[in-house]
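User: Good morning. I'm curious how dicarbonimidic diamide would be positioned relative to this chain. Could you predict the structure with it bound?
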Amino acid sequence: MTTISIEADPAPIEIDLAKTAFVIIDMQRDFLEPDGFGESLGNDVSLLRTAIAPCATMLNWCRGNNALVIHTREGHRPDMTDAPLAKVQRGSPSMRIGDTGPMGRILIRGEAGHGIVDELAPVDGEPVLDKPGKGAFYQTDLELILRNRGIDALLVAGVTTEVCVHTTVREANDRGFRCIVLGDCCGSYFPDFHTTGLKMIAAQGGIFGWVSDSTRFLSAAAGGPAVA
Ligand code: C5J
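Assistant: Good morning! Here's the predicted structure, ligand included:
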C-alpha cells in the first residue's frame, strides 16, 4: 500500500495508489483534431489539445507504476441501434451522429474520428470502454472493472470538462468512488465552462469530488512538496 496526499481543492486528499485508476474520457480524434467533427462545428480544438501533453505525462507515470488506466470513447454501433433518437436529432448542427464527416461517420465505432488520438493511444492491458452516453458508467462495465480491481479513487481526465467528464464524475461519486479531477488534463471548447465546471466539482466541500492537476499529483507521487 502506498498512500499519498495530493494537494487539491477544496482540501488535500489521501489516496492509496494501489486502489486508484486513471480514467481518460473521450480523447478522440473527432473532438480533438483539426479536421475533426468538433472543428467542423466551428469549435477551436486547440482549447482541448492543451490537455494532451499532461494526459501523456500521466499515462507515462501510470504505465511505469503499474496503475490501472482506463480509456473511454463516446460513440455508437454502425447501425446506430444504440443511439437514442433524442440524441441524434438534438439541435440543428451541420452534421449529426452517423453522418459522414472529415474522419468518417461521426461518433460511429470503427471510424477514424472515433479513435483515440495517437499521442494517447491505449496499449495492451488498458481497457477501452465504448460508451453510448455522456457518462462512462452508463451501459458499460466500468463499475465491474473498478470493483474487481478494488479501486476506490479515480484520477479523471479528458474532454469535455462540463459534459462527459462531469457526467462521469457525478456517476462515480454516486457509486462511492472518490474522484480527483486533474484540471490541466481536461478541456472544453468553452473556457468559462471548463473553469466553472471544475469549480462546481470542488464547491460545497467537494460536492462531487476534488480538483487538482497533473503537477500536484506527480509531486505527491514522487514524495516531494506539492506545487500549486
Ligand atoms: C464529450 C460531448 N465527450 N461534449 N462529448 O464530452 O458531446
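The pocket of dicarbonimidic diamide is lined by residues 26, 74, 159-160, 163-164 (CB under 6 Å). Residues 3-223 form a domain with the Rossmann fold fold (CATH 3.40.50.850).
Let me know if you'd like a different ligand tried.
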